[in-house]
Amino acid sequence: MSETVQPPLGGSVFLQRLLRSPAAAVGCLVVVVILALALFAPWIAPYDPNLQETANRLMPPDAAHWLGTDGFGRDILSRIIYGARPTLLLVLVVVLLMAPLGILVGILAGFFGGITERVLMRLTDIVMSFPRLLLAFAFVAIMGPGLINGALALALTSWPAYARQARVETAALRRSDYLAAAEMVGIRGIRLLWGHILPLVLPSSIIRLALDLSGIILAAAGLGFLGLGVRPPTAEWGSMVSEGTQVIFDQWWVAAVPGIAILITSFAFNLLADGLRDILDPRHD
Amino acid sequence: MSALSVSNLSVIFQGRDKGFTAVRDVSFDVGAGETFGLIGPSGCGKTTVLRAIAGLNTNWQGSIAVSGEPLQPGRKITGALRASIQMVFQDPYSSLHPRHRISRILGEPLSLRGERDVGGQVRTALERVGLPAAVAGRYPHQLSGGQRQRVAIARALLLKPKLLLLDEPTSALDVSVQAGILNLLNDLKASEGMTFVLVSHDPGVVAHMCDRAVIMDAGRIARSMDRAQIAASWSDAAAVAG
Amino acid sequence: MTDPLLQVEDLSISFPSANGLVRIVDGVSFSVGREVVALVGESGSGKSMTGRAIMGLLPSRAQVAAARLSFDGQNLTALPEKGWNSLRGSGMGLILQDPKYSLNPAHRIGRQVEEALLLHTKLSAAERRERALDMLDKVGLPDVGRIYSSYPAALSGGMGQRVMIAAMLINRPKLLIADEPTSALDRGLQDQILTLLRLLSEELGMGLLLISHDLQQVSRYADRVMVMRRGKIDEEMASADLANAKSDYTRALWAARPSAATYGTRLPVYGEQP
Q1: Which of A17, A31, A99, C253 is most buried, judged by most C-beta within 10 A?
Q2: What is the ipTM of this complex?
Q3: Contact C215 B183 (CB under 8 A)
Q4: Which domains does chain C possess?
Q5: Residue B219's CATH number
């Protein structure tokens, strides 16, 4: 006779559920480790990531350098640890720009309908048709390489999916009884959008976000690989892979190690996203 | 002056090519303190009429006046009029926001209007519908259907309305829970001096609650009934069912 | 009472929860023969769980125990899924609340009505079609040829429920279990569907178990009524005797229905707040 309504998640309940899904727990753990590496890099990394010891170039992993050294004699382990920073920073910038922008556009379109909806959705369609990396090139070509420009380019091409999702959900909510009831007691405008609609649209956006993150990480690494990310000598996984391709046949670890770092991070976010979906999706209970 | 006066009300929903006339030239008056029934099968337009009076649908023609004050078609209801017309929805599972605690559901309309002592007023509101103060800290999914509907009634009463619109308020509830809610509604009507407009497809509820009623069919009023006729029509139905 | 088709003795159903094992159904015993029996209770009474236990549709985490649970001589307690599949749709029919969720929107009506025949009999396509049309006619649907080739979306709620009944009865089951078969329908339609179920059960010599929360309504169609409360059977009697029920709860349930007679009075409410 009734549907189960998803209970809002308090902190401890969230943790309980997280632990119920092994995939999510593993993903979460790895993400936390990587975050810790990035945050505490100066204390964890054994060497200065930019310290060149040309006498020790391209050394295989040994006791002194656990993951070997690269073409400039820099310790790869330290560069991996420091390399987490630009990657995660870029991801953060993209997330902070992309999700709020997309959700805002979607909610406005879904709530007001009519011409507002049509205009916003056409805009969304136009932006959606741009290929992400090509636009990143264009940006960088115009504004010069750099982390922020790369992040901007990625964010500005990735928000449409959030807008579409938010619009559909908002449009469905507009017909709901609880919004009608809110209207009847005089709740209107921003208060309605922020306090009543947004909390209901957010969970699926969060899930989408977690799923997108792994893609963004790969895109960020891709930009770095193509030399469009941070500038050398800053350690960044994508550019490390690029440098490593030069010596890939003899000193394979120089490219493989950052590649594996990218893989693990991306995979961890995927697992986390899977787990989040199980947790936040009301039908899964 | 009647509590509610509806004249030549028509509601047309615009489709792609032609419009669908959900309500066609409906007129009726409701006296103060009455419970007025809008009855009819699914799709007859009774809920559409109710939502037009509620101001949830402003796309209508004709005239609607509450205690003499007219509603403007095409414009949202605001101010004192907004407070004096309130509604209780059919499904207690979908009329309370799932992510808000009861204290917020009941408190927000009050703080919006700059009222003082919102917490105290929320407690009073809960008490008035027979719920313990502890309910304020809970979420809707933690309450039973009957409790949720009581919260919905409490919310509708927050702004002290004169006209309360009831859209099948008990059809989603068990029989004994329904009994409690109907009792509560009648108690409150008397103590707060309200007028009810009740939409229902349940003959028993209509026979128990309504002083007068109209039967709607395909958008029009098919028949008006006074109390004697409502009672008679119930007895007929009961006799047939056996 | 006729020979029992369904026998339930001391049935208990428990669910694991954060606070340990919660008993939803507690020592329920009853039997159903070739008659119409109503199992009535409010939300939380355990009536739906009881119904599901008889149909073999409890979730896997439910723990079921019974001294006896048998249908037509067959022991249901240890029945494997295969056994249930051959039972449901042939010996036992099930009607659930909302035809919207029971009818597959992507398949034509005719195919869904015939499905039980396909699974349990060896009739030819022509014979199946004939039986399907006959059944659709029996449940009072007009223009059966057209409905046979339509999709569920073309039907109203009342018609959809009639189709469900046709689909469930096509194999002439011995027992039909209907769980709130009319709650999703308008009042007028409810009476029509219940009348139909009663007529068909008489005509086909079938047992009918009606599970509902509306005591006054189902009592008009049932020979016997069992009232459940908090996992137990509170009282059991012939429906003709309901006005003289002994249990306070049953009396309150019986009297709680609003009507013209209760106008201007307070309806009786049993015990504590809902």
Answers
A1: C253
A2: 0.85
A3: no
A4: 1-91+176-258 (3.40.50.300), 99-170 (no CATH)
A5: 3.40.50.300
- B229: domain range? 4-96+157-241
Residues of A in contact with C97 (CB under 8 A): 1
Listed in sequence order, the DSSP H helices in chain C are 47-55, 81-87, 99-102, 109-120, 125-138, 144-148, 157-169, 187-204, 215-219, 248-255
Predicted pLDDT at B215: 94
The predicted model gives A166-181 an average pLDDT of: 90
B97 → closest Cβ in A1, A191, A196: A196
Q: Which residues of A touch C183 (CB under 8 A)?
A: 1
Domains parsed from chain A with CATH numbers: 14-45+67-284 (1.10.3720.10)
Instruction: Give the DSSP letter string of C185-210.
Output: S-HHHHHHHHHHHHHHHHHHT-EEEE
Tell me whether strands B212-217 and B220-225 are parallel, antiparallel or unpaired: antiparallel
- pTM value is 0.80
Asked if residue B86 lies in contact with residue B161, where contact means CB atoms within 8 angstroms, the answer is: yes
Q: State how far the Cα of C56 lies from the Cα of C175, in Å rounded to an integer.
A: 14
Torsion of Cα atoms, C196 then C200 then C203 then C204, to 10°: 180
How large is the angle between the packed helices A160-174 and A198-225, nearest 10 degrees? 170
Of C187, C263, C268, the CB nearest to B179: C268
A200 → chain B, closest CA residue? B99
Contact B33, B193 (CB under 8 A): yes
Polymer length in residues for chain A: 285
End-to-end CA, chain C? 36
Binned at pLDDT 50, 70 and 90, residue A12 comes out as low
Residue A253 has pLDDT above 90, yes or no: no
Residue from B174, B182, B186, B233 whose CB has the most chain C CBs within 10 Å, to mutate: B174
C28 token code pair:
């329920």
The secondary structure element, H or E, covering residue B21 is: strand B19-30
| Pairing label, strands C36-41, C224-229 | parallel
pLDDT confidence of residue B75: 86
Considering the domain boundaries, does residue B108 fall inside one?
no
Evaluate whether residue B109 is within a structural domain: no
Q: Output the six-digit token pair for A269.
A: 């976010």
Mean pLDDT calculated for residue range B211-223 = 93
Torsion of CA A272, A278, A280, A281, to 10 degrees: 140
Cβ of residue B143 closer than 8 Å to a chain A Cβ: no
In a domain, B143, yes or no: no
Domain count, chain B: 1
Q: What's the rounded Cα separation, in Å, for the pair A9 and B63?
A: 47
Residues of A with CB below 8 A from B96's CB?
Answer: 178, 181
Tell me if chain B has a CB within 8 Å of the CB of A196. Answer: yes
